[in-house]
Design a protein that fits this description.
- The structure is a single chain.
- With about 80 residues, the chain is mostly helical.
- It has one domain.
- Helix 2 packs across helix 3.
- It is flat.
């Protein structure tokens, strides 16, 4: 019973990591496409990706130490193997 639960949790964690990788890849693709073609020239990305990234960065930066700690926690969770 415990072994089955461990396998289910491992599969769930693996799926979440893969979804995170896909999200980061799409984010990077959006940034590159907006740099190359401009914000309005990419029809399948109706969101201003660079503007959103800048807004999040500004918000974290305005929080000072709390923002830095939040970035550090997120980065350490993502890089954890």
């Amino acid at each position: 019973m415990v072994d089955n639960m461990t396998k289910v949790l491992d599969n769930a964690v693996s799926l979440m990591k893969k979804l995170t990788d896909v999200g980061l890849t799409l984010l990077a693709l959006g940034v590159v496409l907006q740099v190359l073609f401009g914000a309005t020239a990419v029809p399948f990305m109706p969101v201003d990706v660079i503007g959103s990234v800048v807004a999040v960065t500004n918000q974290l930066g305005s929080e000072g130490l709390v923002g830095l700690v939040a970035v550090w926690v997120l980065a350490s969770l993502y890089n954890r193997k």
